[in-house]
Amino acid sequence: MPLIDVQVMEGVFSTDEKAQIIARVTEGFGKVAGQTLADATSVRVHEISSGSWGYAGTAMTTEDARAMRARG
Fold it and tell me: How many C-beta atoms lie closer than 10 Å to residue 9's C-beta?
């Protein structure tokens, strides 16, 4: 049974958006691995505390992640 972990900054994605991430990651995996494995796949979305994620040598905050997301 495959297990896929996705890590995101806390407070950036809504509950609905996290559900969409789970569904689409599972779907994408299934396109490669087959439907039987997709049906047995677990996807976990982990929210990382603001300031606890380093990017390019700098601690990121939720506000930083939201700004990155807004840029597309």
Answer: 23
| Number of domains comprising the chain | 1
pLDDT bracket for residue 63 (50, 70, 90): very high
Residue range of the domain that includes 66:
3-70
Nearest in space to 60 (alpha carbons), one of 68, 69, 51: 51
Q: What pLDDT score does 50 carry?
A: 96
Neighbours of 26 (CB within 10 A): 17
Is the pTM of the predicted complex or chain greater than 0.85? yes
Pairing of strands 53-55, 58-60: antiparallel
